[in-house]
Amino acid sequence: MKNKRNLGEEILSHLRFYQDLGVRYADPAPEAITIHAATSKGEPPEATASGGVVPRAAAKPAPSAIIASASLFDDIPMEMEELEAIRQDLGDCRRCKLAPGRTNIVFGSGNPHAELMFVGEAPGADEDAQGLPFVGRAGQLLSKIIEAINMRREDVYICNILKCRPPGNRNPESDEISACEPFLFRQIASIRPKVICALGTFGAQTLLRTKEPISRLRGNFFEYRGAKLMATFHPAYLLRNPNEKRKVWDDVQKIRDYLKSTH
Ligand code: SF4
Questions:
Q1: pTM (2 decimals)?
Q2: Residues 184/118, Cβ–Cβ less than 8 Å
Q3: Among 165, 253, 164, 240, which Cα is nearest to 200's?
Q4: What residues flank ligand 1, with Cβ below 6 Å?
Q5: I need a surface site. Which of 26, 34, 248, 255 has the fewest CB within 10 A?
Q6: Span 164-199, pLDDT tens digits
Q7: Degrees, nearest 5: CA angle 97-103-104
Q8: Which of 86, 127, 164 for a ligand 1 pocket mutation test, highest count of atoms within 8 Å of Cβ?
Q9: What are the CB-based long-range contacts (under 8 Å, 24+) for 39-42?
Q10: Ligand 1 centroid to residue 98 C-alpha, Å
Q11: Which H helix or E strand runs over 47?
Q12: How far apart are CA 205 and CA 216, in angstroms?
């Protein structure tokens, strides 16, 4: 009896995750796996001159200037680097003007061999205080999202483009991105995830080198140096706009299905 009750509670707990994400019905037959940028009309993607893939134009024109350029990784050494070596190289970093205002560098955390990597914008107050990414309310929601696709937080790797908190949580500035971004690229090269999930406008626009709004970038896979990149809304945005959870649920289901297809 006790085991049956525990199982029931577990199922209920999972259902609450889905409900919290805005799911209102079960999906017994997951839709066909979308590797490239599937449009709402299910049209195949178009290849770019660089060999990357962008969504085929549907009702709206495809996001422009989305090219997974090899130059993004030009500075990366050919040999595989351990994350620990990258962290040591970062050291007590003073490479940009955010250093004096930070409490802790937030390098990243999780599985160094993760198949799925989340990349956010920059640490907030909670993250700055603890030196860990996504530990506040938004972080708790991110944990729920990860659990909803049957993964654990320790299975994935989570980090930000900037490793130090901008004052007052203002937007990162270009000189800060230029100084910090190479470390993110080295993290990606070390982990070699199958999927990178860019969280929020800034994360997506910076990685994809585009000014397209997140509302047009999300929901599509982009080629990104051997990985698939999916952009979706930031959990902090979802806390303010709970009606958008359903879209994030759609996005993470695509990630889940793609990862399944690779096994
Ligand atoms: S944001 Fe990045 S580059 Fe700037 S001080 Fe922090 S670790 Fe260094």
A1: 0.76
A2: no
A3: 240
A4: 90, 93-96, 98-99, 105, 162-164, 176, 179-180
A5: 26
A6: 999 998 999 999 999 999 999 999 999 999 999 999
A7: 95
A8: 164
A9: 39/220
A10: 6
A11: strand 46-47
A12: 11
